[in-house]
Amino acid sequence: MIQEVVSVGLPVDERWKIIKNRIEPESGTRPDMKRICIVTGTHGDELEGQYVCYEVARRINEHKELLNGIVDIYPALNPLGIDSITRGIPMFDLDMNRIFPGSNTSATAEFVAAQIMNDMSGADMAIDIHASNIFLRETPQVRVNETTADNLLPYAKLLNTDFVWVHASATVLEATLAHSLNKTGVPCLVVEMGVGMRITKEYCMQLVDGIFRLMCELGIWKGEAPAVREPIVSRDGHVSFVNAEASGIFVSSVEHWQRVKKGDHLGDIVNPATGEILHAVQADVTGRVFTLREYPVVYSGSLIARVLEEYEEDAEND
What we know:
Shape: globular
Pfam families: AstE_AspA_cat
Organism: Butyricicoccus porcorum
Keywords: Hydrolase, Metal-binding, Zinc
Protein name: Succinylglutamate desuccinylase
Order of helices and strands: EEEHEHHEEHEHEHEEEEEEEEEH
InterPro entries: AstE_AspA_cat, N-alpha-Ac-DABA_deacetylase
């Protein structure tokens, strides 16, 4: 059932309207019934979650008799951004994931954020799905704040991602949707995967299996629980950032989630005019490449890759 979460007037007789699809069991709801929120489209250039929402709804509708809880699907928190291929909220020049929890008495964007928070209040779980930007591709991963890791980690491991990145609290902005939900008692997991302005179907299907596995754990889905992979968990932030040391065109020599050893060749930054290699990019640590440059034009300081560090002997024994 399509429901309106919030609708506000805009110039030129337009409206900023956010909807959700509430899917309930055929037999009706009970006061003790669990509820999960699937949220995406906070950034208008992140589209991976669009396919996830479609596939979750499709699978539930195909076997509605197996649903034992409430599933709220929010396909686009920033529909204006999606319509205009803009990361932030057009006209307001705002990153929507920096205005939560919002305020009922503030300007338009903050009012919308407050209404979203109010609508998700009381949920038993929320999954906030993001993609990367157009410059980087991310291996499917869950990101959680270290202050909520003890509570969220068991659920994060069920989402069928390759990696769970436990962030230091200092790196988590308080104005994000996930931080605000967790602070109000709604457990929220942040998923990052893929690349901006694209849909990576295999990543989406991987996450959808994880969502159904999590719904089985919560008692929302009575179907057979999909098998999920055991993710690597980084609790202490052993992540190496590889940045460009020259401006040019980056040509990768590795794949996403590939294991590399310290000193391995990750790619070259080249000068197309002179035929020179300006910078031979190397791995600083032994580990897995979970972030990799997708857009080839780089400038000095541009992020090339992120590598999840592991011990050399572990890599040799795997």
